[in-house]
What we know:
It is a single chain. About 35% of the residues lie in helices and about 25% in strands. The chain is an alpha/beta fold. Strands 6-9-10-3-11-12 form a 6-stranded mixed β-sheet, with helices on both faces. Strands 2-1-4-5 form a 4-stranded antiparallel β-sheet, with helices on one face. Helix 6 packs across helix 7 (about 155-165). The model has no long low-confidence stretch (mean pLDDT about 90). The chain is globular.
Amino acid sequence: MKGIGKEYYGNRVLKDVSFSLGPGRTLSLVGENGAGKSTLMNILFGMPVIHATGGFEGAVLLDGEQVSIASPEEAMRLGIGMVHQEFMLLPGFTITENIKLNREITRENALSRVFGASLRWLDMPAMRTDARASMDTIGLGIDEVLPVRGLPVGHMQFVEIARELDKKNIRLLVLDEPTAVLTESDAERLLDAIRLLNSRGISILFISHRLDEVMSVSDTIVILRDGERVAEMRPSETTIERVAELMVGRKIETGEI
């Protein structure tokens, strides 16, 4: 993302923000609430609110070429996935049905051969196989035919990620506060999953307020404050205390973090 700027009705929320992310790497984006993190990710994912309010300044480049991401559908076509802070699962559907939603696998039958594709049957064995493969990638060892309703929140978060991984061309995954609702053990499992995805060449944009996790999983940390990029560094070059000071723009006293 290069020179990104955004204004909402006279209020400038992003000012000339740039960063780059290589394949199989994790970049953490940190900042206080209102720093511009979500707006930046909405631009990357082509969310309608961006284009309905005048678009943005700057450019998004993929493989060195500028791309126009006018919608989430276009982002997904380019291999960009996003797991939002709020769960976007259908509780009355099974895990498999949620993972394959809008990408269902169907098969012919006698009626569809006569009356058309709208009467094709769902190929549930094939869908379960795909769902199982995505779940195994991140170590979610529960039955893929369980209903989402009643699952622990940690499992629901992993289902969200598995759904994105089922998109076969996925190359960049945005995780917006993915550990906010997780227990400490589930959060550690998720960080392990991020490392595994990196090893398979998938890049991760990780947004989190949990700075210990940011330090643990990141290759690069980008710090935003008041819509501007104020620093970019590797975890080995800094401390949690220094990251927190850059986020808020002042010295942090002991006990504030």
